[in-house]
Write a structure and sequence with these properties.
Order of helices and strands: EHEHHEEEH
Mean pLDDT: 81
Strand order of the largest sheet: 2-1-3-4-5
Helix content: 25-40%
Shape: globular
Distance between the termini: 20 Å
Number of helices: 4
């Protein structure tokens, strides 16, 4: 899974950082095996992996080079997004030419060591942000999240709002075989009911 980290607490206080419209996000991966051992019961496996995800997230948040690492990643993401935008523009104009594939392995782009299967966004307790008592004449009961995810991707949101746990899934419906996401979501909801 990949997830995002709010970098605001790590940045120096400046007027720009005081704005709610100032975006400072870093990304990281949570990695564990994607199989369930038959020799261990599913409950133990679930809580072991939940503990592992929490530990990996905590280590990332406490990593002393998180800001500099995020800056390097932001430059790379910016370079990639400009290249993709240029490719999209050229395809629209009909001028795009696919790059030549090299026969020399040392010239081929490096592949990532692993691929994130799903994005995870744990927004936390949103009741601390939405002060319900400030809305005397309005009862806040639901929050709808909006997301952008990569093509062919899935993004799982988890947060508490109005005293309830909310979990939502966004996905590219053209990126998966028919019924695959529905089966995944059904199993996800079943696991939440079972383990929580």
């Amino acid at each position: 899974m990949y997830s995002a980290l709010n970098l605001r607490p790590y940045l120096n206080a400046t007027p720009a950082n005081d704005s709610y419209w100032f975006l400072a996000v870093g990304y990281f991966n949570i990695i564990f095996p994607n199989f369930i051992p038959k020799s261990i019961d599913t409950t133990s496996t679930f809580w072991l992996r939940a503990k592992s995800a929490k530990e990996q997230s905590t280590r990332t948040a406490k990593y002393p080079l998180i800001v500099s690492r995020s800056r390097v990643m932001a430059r790379e993401r910016g370079r990639r997004s400009r290249a993709w935008a240029k490719e999209d523009d050229e395809k629209e104009r009909g001028t795009w030419v696919p790059p030549e594939v090299s026969d020399h392995p040392e010239l081929k782009p490096h592949q990532a060591p692993s691929t994130a299967l799903i994005g995870l966004s744990l927004l936390g307790n949103l009741d601390g942000i939405y002060k319900h008592s400030s809305f005397a004449d309005v009862k806040l009961h639901t929050l709808t999240t909006g997301s952008r995810q990569r093509s062919g991707g899935m993004l799982l949101f988890g947060y508490t709002f109005a005293g309830k746990l909310w979990v939502s899934l966004g996905y590219d419906e053209n990126g998966f075989d028919q019924g695959m996401v529905q089966r995944f979501w059904c199993n996800c909801l079943s696991a939440i009911d079972h383990f929580l």
